[in-house]
Specification:
alpha/beta, UDP-N-acetylmuramoyl-L-alanine:D-glutamate ligase
Length: about 475
């Protein structure tokens, strides 16, 4: 599956370009219907099938599917919203629809595809309710009816698909919540629109093809592999330890963990491979963070949201080094975000979850499209923004957006975000640009969690990272 994603508008442009090149709309519809049928024939045995068709192109695709299945000998019934509206006896037609759907063994959802921009109403909403209540396998064409193509938001009510068949490229709404939960297994079929007809896309699904990792070389030593500095604090030392270990696991040659002198015993007794530096003066701290041997900085993991936390963040930002601001370093700027955004630069990665994002960018909280929200924050701040969650978004100030799709729900446990921050810092230290470092770290994080499976705790991710790196290396050979 290709990494590029097409919005509703971009898919419309691609179709217009294909038609201008000589492909009729009917031809594209026929190919789309054939693509759906190919998936159905591969996944299901012949059975009683109901194809539910709406008024537009999606309904047209559905009628092609119904015809092609009948030609294969399948028993197929078409229920079209345009036919329902002509019946005067509403109670009778509702009874007939319920009976047909409940007797079916397979339902094809061809009500609404790309471009739906309002809640489903009337007969169409009734059909969505009947489909979902039937608990039968459902194949949705393009995107489950009721799911917004670009944002994945639900327009009040939507079809729960067993699988979805879309065309040319996947859509952002297949990967954003809640759309990802409605989509089921996703298939992307070719309908003869060549790559050169596609517009310049803005969104991609995260994948190793979008970035590459630095491989160790025979002439390397610990500093050429990348040194990074993790700034510790005694509030949550476990978070800092997880981050520093993750930075080392992902390939940073040396990780130095700096802490207050009174906190030194907390870290020195348990973090064996890091170099622990007790800081006794402001001057010593400044000399350390300015040292050119340390190519990337991490601050905020495990820190409390207080004035001194934000002051330290501002100092680090003034150095213009690649830097990850995490946790308390973000929340400490609540109500004074301008003091942060005025000094942010393109070498910074911000890692907010939804709560931290709202504290940082309250004026963007109303935006329901997660990609749009993250992108506006990235452009406004001038930094890479990683808006975390099951459907994490990585957005750059230059307008690039990556949607991550490999994160399992098991990552919803304490400490996993600290590991992610460490991964980003370790990759920055090795010279990856911030956007690629963020995207790579998010994907590695998700893949490590998938490999561990149920029972995951944050510490488990560290042991899975080497096998994930081996896998990525093999992909790029």
């Amino acid at each position: 599956m290709k990494a590029e994603l097409l919005t509703a508008e971009e898919m419309g442009e691609a179709e217009k370009a294909a038609i201008a090149r000589g492909n009729s709309e009917l031809t594209l519809m026929e190919r789309a219907g054939q693509g759906v049928v190919d998936v159905i024939l591969n996944k299901f045995s012949p059975c009683q099938t109901v194809v539910v068709c709406g008024p537009g192109k999606n309904g047209g695709d559905g009628k092609v599917v119904a015809r092609l299945l009948k030609e294969k000998g399948w028993p197929v019934q078409v229920i079209a919203t345009e036919d329902l509206s002509t019946h005067e006896n509403l109670e009778h037609i509702l009874s007939e629809v319920n009976q047909s759907v409940n007797q079916a063994e397979l339902i094809v959802d061809a009500l609404f595809g790309t471009g739906l921009s309002r809640p489903i109403e009337g007969y169409a909403r009734m059909l969505v309710d009947v489909i979902n209540a039937s608990l039968k396998p459902v194949v949705s064409i393009d995107i489950p009816s009721g799911i917004d193509t670009n944002s994945g938001n639900c327009w009040g009510n939507a079809v729960h698909a067993t699988l979805t068949v879309t065309f040319v490229r996947a859509r952002p709404g297949h990967y954003f919540l809640p759309g990802r939960l409605y989509t089921g297994k996703l298939f992307v079929k070719d309908i003869g629109i060549s790559d050169d007809l596609l517009p310049l896309v803005q969104f991609c699904v995260n994948h190793p093809s979008l970035w590459s990792l630095k491989e160790p070389q025979p002439t390397d030593h610990k500093f050429t592999r990348g040194g990074c500095l993790v700034l510790g604090n005694g509030s949550m030392p476990g978070a800092v330890k997880l981050a520093s270990l993750a930075a080392r696991r992902v390939g940073a040659g040396i990780v130095r963990l700096a802490c207050k002198s009174e906190e030194y015993p907390i870290f020195a007794s348990t973090v064996l491979g890091d170099i622990i530096v007790p800081i006794v003066s402001a001057q010593e701290f400044l000399e350390l963070v300015q040292d050119d041997k340390y190519k990337a900085l991490l601050w905020g993991t495990g820190a409390l949201a207080k004035e001194s936390t934000s002051e330290q963040a501002l100092l680090l930002l003034s150095l213009k080094k690649p830097c990850v601001l995490d946790g308390g370093a973000l929340s400490s700027f609540e109500g004074k975000v301008h003091s942060l955004t005025s000094v942010l630069h393109e070498n910074v990665i911000l890692t907010p979850h939804e709560g931290e994002f709202i504290r940082l960018f309250p004026h963007l909280a109303f935006i329901r499209n997660k990609a749009e929200k993250a992108l506006k924050a990235a452009i406004e701040s001038g930094a890479v923004v990683v808006l975390k969650g099951y459907d994490t978004v990585v957005a750059s100030p230059q307008g690039k957006v990556v949607i991550n799709a490999n994160a399992p729900a098991t990552l919803a446990t304490a400490g996993t975000g600290d590991v992610l921050a460490g991964l980003m810092t370790g990759l920055l230290a090795q010279g990856l640009p911030p956007f690629q470092a963020a995207a790579a770290a998010v994907w590695i994080h998700g893949e490590a969690a998938n490999r561990k499976g149920l029972g995951l705790i944050a510490e488990d991710l560290l042991g899975e990272i080497p096998s994930v790196l081996q896998f990525i290396h093999a992909l790029h050979l």
